[in-house]
Give the backbone structure.
Amino acid sequence: MTPKKGNGRRKIKIEKMENENNLYVTFAKRRPTLFQKASELCILCGAEIAIIVFSPRGKLYSFGHPYVEMIGDRFLTQTSQPSSSNSELVEAYRNTNIYELSRQLTYVLTQLEIEKNKSEELTNISKQGIGNHPWEAPIENLGLQELEQL
């Protein structure tokens, strides 16, 4: 039997893919490798890295060492060359303010989602009447004797 020869690793042309399915699959396969390489660079060199990537479908992915927020804050607060123009300073202040407000909004929305999940869990527990006490069950499920005990 002769061994089957495959194509092996081939060079591909670096240009935008036309086929949407291939584009999504390629992104899904290459994104973890990008983050892995960034992680290795952090470990080997002690570099601080932040990578923010939007997928072809618009979903946000990020990697940061130690944290994306910390690196972003450090980048935004770094002073650039001094300028005499007040409008540039005002614009920089507005951009920093927008970034901070956006970060706070993301945090609040995350907390809201956590609280909604807790609320749903409590609602499900109360609907199921979990527990050995009549007062923990929904009133509609109680009999006459149990209602009199309440």
